[in-house]
Amino acid sequence: MANMTKECWEFYMSAHKLWKRGQFRESEGMLEKLFAAGGDQVSKASLLAAFVKRSLGEVLAETDILEKLAQEGCNDEPELLPTVYSLLGQAYSIIGLPDQAVEMFLKSVEAEADWRQKLVEYSNAIFAAAALDATDQEFWQRLYGGYEELLAEGNIIPYGEKHWKHKRMRIGYLSSDFRQHPVASLTWPLVANCDGEHFQIFCYAGNDTRDDVSEAFREKAHVWRQVTGWSHKAIAKQIYIDKIDILVDLGGHTSGNMLPVLAYKPAKIQMSAIGWVGSTGMAIVDYVLGDEYCAPKERQYAYVEKLLSVPGSHFCFHLFKDMPKVQESPWQTNGYITFGCFNNFSKVTDEVLVAWGKILGKVPGSKLLLKHKLFGDDRGRQYTLDRLSRCGIDPKQVDLRGFSTDYLEQYGDMDIALDTFPYTGGMTTFEAMYMGVPVVSLCGDSRGQRFGYSMLMNVGLGDMAADNIDDYIDIAATLGKTPELLADLRRELRFMVEASPLMDEAGYTAKVEQIYKTLLK
Q1: Which residues does 323 contact at the CB level (< 8 Å), separation at least 6?
Q2: CA–CA gap between residue 49 and residue 106 (Å, rounded)
Q3: Closest CA relative to residue 122, chosen from 133, 131, 112, 132
Q4: Distance in angstroms (rounded) separating the CA atoms of residues 14 and 33
Q5: Burial code of 105-116, b = ≥16 C-beta within 10 A, e = fewer?
């Protein structure tokens, strides 16, 4: 109640309760009363206002509040500053400012007192950095080095030699995404098609969400460990007790990750796979799983871990939901080509937008369809249109759509999907192709920058992947000028995807299990 009058405190508590109940507009109204009563100088009240704006999807209004708090330093309640920096980093990511996002997350690390939360914020910084345009190996070495230094502050003592030997190899999957999530879609084939004669599957689930997908994993795994809320040390101890041969971390530096568990080295072999785009940066992690296209041996320089390549694709997609039917090419009705992207807009840098503007300029009458929660309010839309205009895209050529659950059906309004770079799409690339929409992708140096290239090669459309921006622009523009080809792809692409390694669940599992066997020889 410090720094608040009794009246302001009552307004604050009412606003907080309304926000927790999901009554966001009502909470906003109560905060307005609080500020009118003189509570506008209280950091706690302003931070709640930022949370309310976030809940309403008004990210730019949230950003305004957070920037003011950061500038003032939360002088009355400095313990709130790490949270302010973290939220501001998230907001900057959403509106396409990854450099500022990285800066804010690192500031949060410096201001944060809790070591475990410092690790979370540092992972946030690494995740945001994946969208940066211009980075080199030295940049990543410094960034990863900082994470290793932070881990060292925890005085973690790794488990020693593991001498156990099992009749069935024990594979542990560590994730907070055993739920309706892209990582679950990509992990399911390995669990559902497991060779039970030679392997035993342990799932260590950090997610507190329970849905049909998590229940399916719970039933299919040989051993299910619900480790939500456990400390990293406790999770590591359980893995060690379970005598896991190969521990596969599925989260890397993504939200809700349990990556610090690997610092204890609780398993014989440790691997990063599926859920993270780059290196963990941890020398104690032995391998990163990729494939022959996105992780060839000559790319080893980008990783602390040793690269392992699955023949074909290291991604295999299982569909937990019914997919809509493929619709006819929209150009046949519209009379013009519609390019589009449903990737997370935090991946859309100014360099990407400039390239898209050049593509539109080469295809007369073409349009650009974008979809993201940022476009759900007027201010977010105008901010984006202004940014597009600065990058050479006429706002009249753009269709901005906010978040909706029917996004898959809206691929029926797109002729050609444009992948983002350097942080490429994963599930969105697969979904676009499954919905009959060809994808043009630009591949870079690291594994995460080559996901699109790998998927296109596996489907048989490798000529739609470019290794430089000029070719990326030319490929997309040429495709936009050949509508007959688009019509053919619309009819055939789903079948091509289904017949490819991207959906060969049994074949994929056999390949990965062969890698496991080789590692444990």
Answers
A1: 408, 434, 435
A2: 23
A3: 112
A4: 11
A5: bbbbbebbeeee
Q: Which residues pair with 224 in a beta bridge?
A: 203
Q: Are 353 and 326 in contact (CB under 8 A)?
A: no
On the question of a cis peptide bond just before residue 422, with omega within 30 degrees of 0, the verdict is yes
H or E stretch at 398? strand 398-401
What is the residue-averaged pLDDT of the chain?
A: 94
Q: What is the mean pLDDT of residues 406-415?
A: 96
Give the strand pairing for 199-205 and 169-175: parallel
What are the structure tokens assigned to 341, written together?
Answer: 């992207």
Q: How far apart are CA 405 and CA 6, in angstroms?
A: 43
For residues 347 and 425, give the distance between their C-alpha atoms in angstroms, rounded to a whole number. Answer: 9
Query: What confidence tier does 3 reach under pLDDT thresholds 50, 70, 90?
Result: low
User: What's the CA gap between 77 and 70, in Å, rounded?
Assistant: 12
Interval 9-37: pLDDT, tens: 999 999 999 999 999 999 999 999 999 98
SS3 content of the chain, % helix, strand, coil (to 5): 55, 10, 35
Q: Which domains, and CATH codes, for the chain?
A: 6-152 (1.25.40.10), 169-316+504-519 (3.40.50.11380), 331-503 (3.40.50.2000)
Q: Any idea which residue has 């020889």 for tokens? A: 521
C-alpha 280, offset from chain centre: 15
The residues with which 516 forms a beta bridge, in sequence order, are: none
Task: Report how far apart the first and last C-alpha atoms of the chain are (Å, whole number).
Answer: 63
Do residues 172 and 143 make contact, with C-beta atoms less than 8 angstroms apart? no
H runs (alpha helix) in 297-401 = 331-334, 350-362, 378-390
